[in-house]
Amino acid sequence: MRGKGTMSRQKTERLLSLVVCLLSSRRYLTAGQIRAAVPGYPDAFDAFKRMFERDKDELRELGIPLEIGTNNPLDEEPGYRIPRQAYELPEIVLEPDEAAMLGLAARVWQRAEMAGAAAGGLLKLRAAGVEAEETAQPGIEPRLNASEAAFGPLWQAVRDRRPVAFGYQVPGRAAAQRRNLEPWGVVNRNGHWYTVGLDRDRSAERVFRLSRIDGPVSFTGPPGSVTVPEGTDVRDSVRSWGGELPGLRTAVLRVRAGSGYGLRRRATSDQPAPASAAPPDGGPGWDLVQAPFSDVGWYADYIASFGPDVVVLEPVDLRDAVIRRLKGALA
Amino acid sequence: MTPGSGGTRAASAHQRPARPGTATERLPRLLALVPYVISRKAVGLAETATAFGISENELVDDLNLLWCVELRSPDPYCPIDLSYEGGEITVSQAESIGRPLRLGADEASALLIALRTLAEVPGQRDDSALSRVIAKLEDAAGAAAAPSAQVAVHLDGRAPADVQARVAGALRERRRLHLSYYVPGRDEATERDVDPMRLLVVEGRAYLEGWCRRAEAVRLFRLDRVLALEVLGVAAEVPAAAEHVDVDSGQLFRPSPDDVEVELELSDAGDWVADYYPCEERTDLGEGRMRVRLRTPDTQWVRRLALRLGEDGTVISPPELAEQVRQDAADALAHYS
Prior knowledge:
The complex is a heterodimer of chains A (331) and B (337). With 331 residues, chain A is α+β, with helices and mostly antiparallel strands.
């Protein structure tokens, strides 16, 4: 009986023997020497060659460093070996608190491929002696989601430095636009993924939101054909967009008592409104709030969202912007 | 004969594979298994099976397979010798596979990005352990660590660090919390007692997951909306039936069939709404305008959203909601006249 399980077991045995054989040898072994040493290859040379080619590809895909070379310059036929130094994970010793962090880290990714890669990495580290248990201890558990279909190919493109092309949905236009990008990095900001790179058609740096990428992402060049400009640090670039601008100006607001909590949290001053700031109808129950802001447009939108509960007294440009917003909502 | 039966080595073991997986799935496990045992000198079958996420039968099958590896040239020999007699695995000879394979770029990057994400979380208990493990992992990974620098994660830092630290403290000590919690949709501060369950950072934001004693249900609270909190001198009592919110399904807030259906028309400048909120349907109206449909349990926030959008977003339905927005705008404008 030769079910699929049997085939798979034979192949596993052969690949394992091949790895052990090539790791054990300091010299390059020719295909013929390998066939003599590793059980499980067919007798016919052509069939052996085909199978050996596939096996080599599989080992490389698993990240096993397979070297081709000759033992001396006169050898005509190249041989193969796995240099032990390139194969082995270097010594790594973790303290218990460090290993606990690694256990937490392995749970961060929600996306299957990355979660699988993290688990695979953790397994190797455990094999090196690291005791990284998944702690049941309550802690802070961040989760990284990457449900956007474009994440996988863009990560590969960034990892392998390959240019890509994709359709991009531009706000307000029905048809997706074709974009050609040399991606430098993938960035998550507040839960959304973006890619940063050189837009080839515009010859300028551009940022694309992954959720707006429409259809498949295709590679348009070989690995290694993208050069990330010297000094580019996507971690810095995202921090710089992230940094909240310091509040440069002060808004003076009349806020109905018992409302506007969001606004009051940033207030520098918050007290019951004096008679001079009372509304024209003289009603009680208003507070006078001073709060810092930097962007008039954004802050006006925010204030408008409180409707009749917040009134801008100063400055006049903020007041006008809020009035415009409210008139827009009235239309 | 198997290395577990105490006998001598047989030419091949006729074991029925339990669930071997494909060769490329199984080979990495086999290559990790030998160093896993060696680095621990001796280790139990059950414990090892758990660590590798397989059954004991599968593990025994893996061990038999390793033990059967044979090389035929120059002289036939068996490079791996091991035993699992009495339920304890030992490896007496491992030839060249005594150390694990190096980390691949995906493995190193997935772990490093995750560790750096942990480091981004404000109020993290153990910053020094994190930076130490990141440095050691970068060292061990070598060139495989490089692509991880091309990925950055920036979490919303708006939750005050002291709120996070105090919530984390209550969680550790299993104490009940009293929260003043801001509900922006209603611009309202609510008071509630919460028994903490977990601290999460999902989609860039920090949340406390806890049993809300007012709602008598598990709720998520955004930490940046906690106006004030008090750690009470009472032990937390999370009912045994309380279930964690499923944060791994990718959608934190699922619309319910009882929700109100709202239609909005958005201009070019208002189209961020479609990215920001889960919309059920979007229709392109041309000239940069689009119509979106969403469901919500509470229309108050839509009212506030429409006021904020001004001319860039209009409520189409339900008509009562559209009328409320106009009334709110008219009332607000009255203050400026």
